[in-house]
Amino acid sequence: MRTEKDRTVFQAILRYFGGDVIDFSDYEVNLSCLTDFQRMVLEEVRKIPYGETVTYKELACRIGKEGASRAVGSAVAINPYPVIIPCHRVVSSSGIGGFCGETCGKKVELKRKMLEMEASYKEKKQIE
Description:
By secondary structure, the protein is mostly helical. The chain has one domain (4-127): Winged helix-like DNA-binding domain superfamily/Winged helix DNA-binding domain (Arc Repressor Mutant, subunit A). It is 48% helix and 3% strand. The chain has helices spanning 4-17, 36-45, 56-62, 69-77, 106-127, and strands at residues 54-55, 90-91. It has a two-stranded parallel sheet. It is globular.
């Protein structure tokens, strides 16, 4: 049975993919099935603003775990709430990186399109 909150989240995601800037930070997520480290990583990912990116290495530094960029990448890869926890904003220092546990294919192409959509909005705002 879907609740009103479920419909609101679904509608927000649809609006996001329609090009609206949506702040998902107020939506509750249940990360209780994850380790403390994984939760710490994903909570930091939630702080990355729309239109911005950080590398896995930068994210590791932000949580005080310099040198743990691979572990950070593993935590990001198991994000149970893509878009709501904007893991698409975490990129490799040598390229786009993976998305939803994949390093190539349709999911990575979706990540690229999401980043392009957010970047184009940011560019429009800078021109105005």
